[in-house]
Amino acid sequence: MKKLAILASGSGSNAEKIMEYFQNSTKAQVKLVASNKADAYVLERAGKFHVPTLVFNKAQLESGELTAELKKMEIDWVILAGFLLKIPADLTRAFPDQIVNIHPALLPKYGGKGMYGMNVHRAVKAAAEQETGITIHLVNENYDEGKIIFQAATPVSEEDSPERIAEKVHELEHRFFPEVIASLL
Ligand code: GRF
Does the N terminus or the C terminus of the chain have fewer Cβ atoms within 10 A? Predict the structure, then answer.
């Protein structure tokens, strides 16, 4: 049985889909939802699934305290599901090729600094892209540059607002993220 930890900073709709997917799995279990925001809605979602939660601050992430906690819990895979802080090198070293992130665009497009949340979808709209999508990738020290494991695309039409683009991307995320994680274990 593999042990998963989810790191998330916000609403956690992806985290919820992952908890739902693995709740009766014999392959893996979500053992922890950790957030750098004490009021993140993801913590409530974890409660619904009786998954333990942890709130940490940036200093605890950067000092290696979070890494130590994940190791103590014998976590096998770290899943980033809308986690907004940069992952420090000690965490990537402690979990080589075992940290997975989801990015709401087709990397290498719309990745890198400042490209998160609605910023990504606004940039896609401003560039009049005809498609966007999701990228699920491993995390190395250069955030959005780890090995790409999976991508899926969705068309963007001229009428689509950035909000509508976000919705389409979320649909793809919810559909594919849990099963792509399962395929890695
Ligand atoms: C997702 O779009 C994900 O790609 C990005 O942050 C968003 C998180 O959404 N990294 P949610 O909190 O899972 O609803």
Answer: N
- Quick check: 146 pLDDT over 90? no
Q: In sequence order, which residues have a C-beta less than 8 Å from that of residue 9 and are 6 or more positions away?
A: 35, 36, 37, 40, 42, 82, 83, 84, 85
81 close to ligand 1 (CB < 6 Angstrom): yes
Residue 9 Cα to ligand 1 midpoint, Å, equals 9
Domains identified in the chain and CATH numbers: 2-184 (3.40.50.170)
Mutate to test the pocket of ligand 1, among 39, 42, 102, 116 (most ligand atoms within 8 A of CB): 102
Residue nearest to atom 10 of ligand 1 (CA): 82
Q: Indicate if ligand 1 lies below 6 Å from the C-beta of 10.
A: yes
Angle at 55 between CA 31 and CA 26, to 5 degrees: 10
5 contacts 31 by C-beta, under 8 angstroms: yes
Closest of 86, 106, 37, 77 to residue 180, by C-alpha:
77
Digit-coded pLDDT (tens) for 19-52: 999 999 999 999 999 999 999 999 999 999 999 9
> Within 13 A of 101's CA, how many CA atoms are on the CB side?
26
